[in-house]
Design goal:
Shape of chain A: globular
Number of helices of chain A: 6
Distance between the termini of chain B: 172 Å
Number of helices of chain B: 2
Oligomer: heterodimer
Strand content of chain B: under 5%
Number of domains of chain B: 1
Shape of chain B: rod-shaped
Largest sheet of chain A: 2 strands, antiparallel
Number of strands of chain A: 2
Largest interface: A-B, 54 and 44 residues
């Protein structure tokens, strides 16, 4: 994507996503500590700071940090309870883990010079397919063959039922793909656009526009980061609900 | 460079350190990403489910318990206040009726005393009146006697002066008759 423009102006909007070893210059093995590892660790530490250190006092009247943790807790807990019902509540820690990881990765990636793990399709694919397999296995374990009733619309006209079943099966298997690409695509596109605007900012002529563009896109990204984390989580809840109560 | 396809063999970065194609699609890096993602997620899951979430849920439960207790205590205090107010009102009412009773008693006492005094005074006045009437009667009687005596004497003298012989009995009878008239 890097292109020569107007004599030496070069931008590489995708270079920010390159995985580099943190120590040394060797090849990236599966165990190599990379910039991605670093930013995942930072996200983890930030979550620990808010949720473990923040609630350290176990105060009935919360401190600010504890209050933030409680707000997020209440928000996700209510979401799980509303979407999945009472029996979905025991899966709340898993959903909370997903949400916090995505939310903190997204927002930490907005720090200049940082790295965004959630823009990597491999990362979101693991998340998306992980949810897909977990939910599918859970559906069969909980409901047995009755889980297949998810695809069989018993209240549709009998002629249409097989056709709807085929469509439902296809849409079911597309779920993890859309689930993961939605997140990675949003984050990657946002960061790439920011980088393109940053590249234009080097040109005197258009730099005011470019800088304004960076500010605007950054503002948009702040929204997108929260919304994508929310969307990923609520879709996970919806899929979980399908697994727990396959009957329409 | 965008026209170049990703080198499937594994080099995802060109000589200048720029990405070849999308770094996201570089298969060489994926095991690394997946490995560290799993490490992060599992760590995060254990931290959250073992430490953070139970703690927060305990805090939330404790808070809602505290709030419930406080509301109950407030309710109790409110009831107590209402009771105290009722007792106060009752006491006020009692005191007022007591005061009214005392006032009525005092009035009755005063009235009784007044009646006694009035009776006494009436009796005294009656006695005085009777005394005075007796005195006036005496005086009147005395006056009538004197007038009679004077009238008899005057009549005798008049009769004598006219050359008649005064018949004492006749004169007395005549004077008495005139006096009655």
């Amino acid at each position: 994507m890097a292109e020569e423009k107007e004599g030496g102006l070069v931008f590489h909007p995708l270079d920010q996503f390159i995985v580099k070893p943190l120590f040394g210059d060797g090849p990236v093995h599966w165990y190599t500590v990379t910039n991605l590892t670093l930013w995942m660790a930072i996200a983890l530490l930030a979550i620990v700071a808010v949720f473990v250190l923040g609630s350290r006092g176990r105060a009935v009247i919360p401190t600010r940090l504890q209050s933030i943790g409680e707000l997020i807790y209440g928000f996700i807990y209510k979401m799980v309870e509303d979407v999945c019902g009472k029996d979905g509540v025991k899966y709340f820690p898993y959903i909370m883990t997903l949400f916090l990881f995505i939310l903190f990765s997204n927002y930490l990636a907005l720090i200049p010079m940082s790295y965004s793990p959630t823009s990597m399709i491999a990362v979101t694919a693991v998340l998306g397919f992980g949810v897909f397999f977990a939910v599918t296995i859970l559906g069969f374990v909980k409901n047995g063959p009755a889980f297949l009733g998810l695809f069989w619309m018993s209240d549709a006209p009998a002629v249409l039922r097989p056709i709807i079943a085929v469509i439902e099966v296809i849409s079911y298997f597309v779920r993890p793909v859309s689930h993961s690409i939605r997140l990675a695509g949003n984050i990657m596109a946002g960061h790439a656009v920011l980088k393109v605007f940053a590249g234009f900012a080097a040109l005197t002529l258009v730099s005011p526009v470019a800088v304004f563009g960076i500010v605007a896109i950054y503002g948009l990204e702040v929204l997108v980061c929260g919304i994508q984390a929310y969307v990923f989580t609520i879709l996970t809840c919806v899929y979980l609900k399908d697994a727990l109560h396959p009957a329409h | 460079m965008a026209t170049e396809t990703t080198d499937a063999a594994g080099v995802c970065v060109d000589a200048g350190g720029s990405a070849l194609g999308m770094p996201q699609l570089c298969a060489d890096w994926m095991p690394n990403q997946i490995f560290w993602l799993l490490v992060t997620l599992i760590t995060l899951y254990f931290v959250m489910s073992r430490i953070a979430l139970p703690r927060i849920s305990a805090v939330l439960a404790e808070r809602s318990g505290t709030i419930t207790n406080d509301i109950a205590a407030a309710e109790e205090l409110k009831n107590k206040a209402a009771e105290a107010e009722a007792a106060y009102d009752q006491a006020l009412l009692d005191a007022r009726s007591e005061a009214q009773k005392i006032v009525a008693e005092a009035k009755a006492e005063i009235q009784a005393e007044l009646d006694v005094e009035l009776q006494k005074a009436d009796a005294q006045i009656a006695a005085k009146t009777a005394e005075s009437e007796a005195a006036i009667g005496e005086i009147r009687e005395g006056a009538v006697k004197s007038v009679t005596a004077v009238a008899k004497d005057t009549a005798k003298e008049l009769v004598a002066a006219m050359g008649g012989t005064a018949d004492a009995k006749a004169i007395t009878a005549a004077v008495n008759a005139r006096m009655k008239g």
